[in-house]
Amino acid sequence: MAGIVLVGAQWGDEGKGKITDLIADDFDYVVRFQGGNNAGHTVIHAGRTLKLHLIPSGIMYPHITPIIGNGVVIDPKVLLEEMDELREQGLSTHRLLISCNAHLIMPYHRDLDGASERRLGKLEIGTTRRGIGPAYMDKASRMGLRVQDLTDEHIFRKKLDAALSEKNDILSKVYGLPTYTVDQIAEEYLAYAERIKPYIAETSTLINRALAASQWVLFEGAQGTLLDIDHGTYPFVTSSSPTAGGACTGTGVGPKKIDRVLGIAKAYITRVGSGPFPTELHDETGRHLIDVGNEYGTTTGRERRAGWYDGVIVRYAVHVNGLTDLIITKLDVLSQLETIKVCVAYEHEGHRYNELPCHQSTFHHARPIYEELPGWRSDITQCKTFEELPAAARDYVSFIEDLAEVPVAMIAVGPSREQTIMRRWKGRV
Ligand code: IMP
User: Fold this and answer.
1) Which atom of ligand 1 is nearest to the CA of 113?
2) Whose C-alpha lies nearest to ligand 1, atom 20?
3) 376 CA to middle of ligand 1, Å?
């Protein structure tokens, strides 16, 4: 049995797509368990760059069954566009399976996401405006429409009618926006349904059977630990559970089926959207990280905020996810720097915080306490083993490892899959 969870250990965009792509050969299934098309995985495969938002990156491998789990929220229009694009690139989508229990993003969810952000003004979350939050709100308030509803026009219309009786009031009376009729949405969505129906399945049973048959299943997280609705920097978070526990609820497997939890962290840190960020840099080093690291959102194209590696956050991610391994990406982005800082604790009003402070205001005002390490100032993009890295780069990784208290299993030194040092990953033997 091998159930392996892969999650982001920071604020997302850690390079999860690249690592999934790298280890995908070992797996029979790759399952997404939360989020929606707010995510963006850039996968470079066979010389092609593909940007996937919803479909698990396992789609690129003919031996893998990619699954969209029940914890995901699906915009069917985006799903079908992505499937069309993959087919245009010559990649088959016929193995894709979609959980019957996944929720649908409706047109009014997108409208409400944008409208509530505009209303918040300076206090905005900085969402991707893809309707993610409002779709999860409806899931929790039991007003959501699910993938399975697409298979029964009568039920679909009935549930839509109930939802619209509230949504139209909110759209028109609260936000002054146009309303929808049942026919209008039903016509659009039932047309999507015809194309989506062949992919719908009860995926929980399937995944559990696969694990029982010793097949390998990768549970692929989107976003990152600090964007988790429970464990992140609330309210500046997404509306799902990108932490390891989400892999269980978002796919329907028990925690004892998970053998290993891989956490991905960049050698520095970025975040998109609003919210506290103690190690954020507004100076030329920050600019350097953005430019050299090409830190622009895959989904929205927004420039990411960038800063020094925050060891407190990653240690928190180790605990919250039960990480067994840490994977460091983009180490090469630091190669030109003379010295490199790592945040080891925070300071606020004379107190030192070695762990994430409980109160949000403390975290907002926390000043990072740094350790400064020498840079290596040489090209590491061709290094194939840990020993080939310059001593200063090895020391940097070891420093991070000691702070996190889990071993670093892989180190990415460039964008392509070959540019990854495998330190503690044997895969399927
Ligand atoms: P939402 O997920 O669109 O509701 O956005 C909520 C917050 O999560 C915002 O700060 C977004 O910028 C952030 N976010 C959502 N998806 C991603 C991602 O894939 N990478 C990084 N940040 C994300």
Assistant:
1) 4
2) 12
3) 33
Domains 2-88+202-422 and 103-197 share a fold: no
Determine the residue of 20, 123, 128 to mutate for testing ligand 1's pocket, defined as the one with the most ligand atoms within 8 A of the Cβ atom.
128
Instruction: Output the pLDDT for position 194.
Output: 96
- Tell which residue, 385, 2, 374, has the closest CA to residue 218: 2
Q: pLDDT at position 53, please? A: 92
Gap from CA of 176 to ligand 1 centroid (Å): 26
34 alpha carbon to ligand 1 midpoint, in Å?
A: 12
Asked whether residue 42 carries a pLDDT value surpassing 90, the answer given is no
Query: Would you say how long the chain is, in residues?
Result: 429
Nearest Cα neighbor of 350 from 360, 359, 362 is: 362
316, 225 contact by CB (below 8 A): yes
The stretch 116-121 carries a mean pLDDT of 94
Which of 139, 227, 300, when mutated, tests ligand 1's pocket best, judged by the most ligand atoms within 8 Å of its CB? 227
With the C-alpha atoms ordered 281, 287, 292, 293, is the resulting torsion angle positive or negative? positive
- Residue pair 100/146 in contact by the 8 Å Cβ criterion: yes
Give the closest residue to 73 by CA, choosing from 140, 156, 136.
136
pLDDT of residue 46: 67
User: Which residue is it, tokens 């839509």?
Assistant: 160
CATH class of the domain defined by 103-197: mainly alpha
Mean pLDDT of 189-210: 97
Q: How far apart are CA 160 and CA 154, in angstroms?
A: 10
The residue nearest atom 15 of ligand 1, judged by CA position, is 38
Domain boundaries defined on the chain: 2-88+202-422, 103-197
Cα 395 from Cα 408, distance rounded (Å): 12
The three-point CA angle 89-94-99 to 5° equals 120
Identify the band that residue 45 occupies on the pLDDT scale cut at 50, 70 and 90. low
pTM, two decimals, is 0.96
* Catalytic residue status for 13: yes
Q: Say if strands 367-374 and 339-348 run parallel, antiparallel, or are unpaired.
A: antiparallel
CATH code for the structural domain at 2-88+202-422: 3.90.170.10
pLDDT the model gives residue 1:
62
8 A C-beta contact, residue 106 and residue 113: no
* Interval between CA 174 and ligand 1 midpoint (Å): 25
| Catalytic residue list contains 41 | yes
Helix residue spans in 148-276 (DSSP H):
153-169, 182-196, 203-212, 244-249
